[in-house]
Write a structure and sequence with these properties.
Number of strands of chain A: 11
Helix content of chain B: under 10%
Distance between the termini of chain B: 37 Å
Number of strands of chain B: 11
Shape of chain B: globular
Distance between the termini of chain A: 37 Å
Oligomer: heterodimer
Order of helices and strands of chain A: EEEEEEEEEEE
Strand content of chain B: over 45%
Strand content of chain A: over 45%
Order of helices and strands of chain B: EEEEEEEEEEE
């Protein structure tokens, strides 16, 4: 089946630093990738839709200047959390669509901001 | 009102029992429906798509009632490995909306 990878799987950083998370589709080309965030005991919330070669579309309430998304190729999208704060600590998951119906999820990145 | 609502549980059921989960959604224009399972600290994985005609995959049966905007999942002969959080997911356009999930624990 389709495979989506994420790197890093886990990151701990100091407050005020920026963190970049990579999402790769390994065996298919993804014109669209999605970034989600999941806080403990809550469901996944879509943050933004990443479109190859164009600007990302952000969901209401998600700051585009804080969560920078770049989708430079058909197999790579990156999410940069700028000036991270403890409240940004969360599980960040990307997904990519394949076959038009389902989305395949990456293994997620656990971010802890101290 | 949440877009996708599920009973959060937890459901603690003995091995071999049958368990049913329900889900309701608010967007009548939703196009596709799914059940995902998520293990602790892992990403969600697709369990099955849900169709109006009902569909079955081994011990799992899913049903969709578009008129009532209601989705169900039935697990028969539950196994220890079925312990997970089950997420009801609704798709509109390219966007997936997740329910908060129902936590299931199968007891030996």
């Amino acid at each position: 089946g389709a495979v989506v990878s994420q790197h890093p799987s886990r990151v701990i950083c100091k407050s005020g630093t920026s963190v970049k998370i990579e999402c790769r589709s390994l065996d298919f080309q993804a014109t669209t990738m999605f970034w989600y965030r999941q806080f403990p005991k809550q469901s996944l919330m879509l943050m933004a839709t990443s479109n190859e070669g164009s600007k990302a579309t952000y969901e209401q309430g998600v700051e585009k200047d804080k969560f920078l998304i770049n989708h430079a190729s058909l197999t790579l999208s990156t999410l940069t959390v700028t000036s991270a704060h403890p409240e940004d600590s969360s599980f960040y998951i990307c997904s990519a669509g394949w076959g038009g119906e389902t989305q395949y999820f990456g293994p997620g990145t656990r971010l802890l901001v101290l | 009102r949440k877009e996708v609502e599920q009973d959060p549980g937890p459901f603690n059921v003995p091995e071999g029992a049958t368990v049913a989960f329900n889900c309701t959604y608010s967007n009548s224009a939703s196009q596709s429906f799914f059940w995902y399972r998520q293990d602790c600290r892992k990403e969600p994985k697709l369990l099955m798509s849900v169709y109006s005609s009902g569909n079955e995959d081994g011990r799992f049966t899913a049903q969709l009632n578009r008129a009532s905007q209601y989705i169900s999942l039935l697990i028969r002969d539950s196994k220890l490995s079925d312990s997970a959080t089950y997420l009801c997911v609704v798709k509109w356009g390219e966007k997936l909306t997740f329910g908060t999930g129902t936590r299931l624990t199968i007891i030996p």
